[in-house]
Design a protein that fits this description.
The complex is a heterodimer of chains A (about 110) and B (about 110). By secondary structure, chain A is mostly beta strands. Chain A contains no helices and twelve strands. Classes of the chains: A mainly beta (about 110), B mainly beta (about 110).
Chain lengths: ~110, ~110
Amino acid sequence: AQSVSQHNHHVILSEAASLELGCNYSYGGTVNLFWYVQYPGQHLQLLLKYFSGDPLVKGIKGFEAEFIKSKFSFNLRKPSVQWSDTAEYFCAVNAGQGGKLIFGQGTELSVKP
Amino acid sequence: SQTIHQWPATLVQPVGSPLSLECTVEGTSNPNLYWYRQAAGRGLQLLFYSVGIGQISSEVPQNLSASRPQDRQFILSSKKLLLSDSGFYLCAWTTGTSSYNEQFFGPGTRLTVL
């Protein structure tokens, strides 16, 4: 069965620090990968997605993620975080069949001003 | 533009009572619809999905059920709630069954079972 694992449950950073959130998935076939973000009091929304092509994907608000097939990883990065990046971040994989998404446990990011 | 509504926003129910959560989508037709549950520290768990009226697929055996009486309406129900049913329930939609399609999420319902 497909699964997604996020390594960090809670990350605390100061503003301007660099961010990397780990995500590993378990699936042997072709996958499509997503990062979603949930800001406090807001809907879950898409940050970025990978389908094919360039493994380095750029998303909104300066976020990017790199798909490394050999490592089954899709880590999220941002060179310099802001207080407004405080949110919960979810990695997800879509392995077909009804468009279902399998989510990781989520990582709560707290950015101190 | 498309919007997705969920109600109620919060709900406190006693153990053993029934449940009905509703999700409706506007601005699109024949969407795929999904129910997820978000429990603290456990991410989002897919509960049910539907590719059309009356078509429900269950992902996790439990005392919850789902129905889709209309194209853009998705209902999550239970006859008798358990303490373990507490959580944050999210409805989502997408168009088509392609894995390329982004899912759009509703505001969620916070359910507390006492």
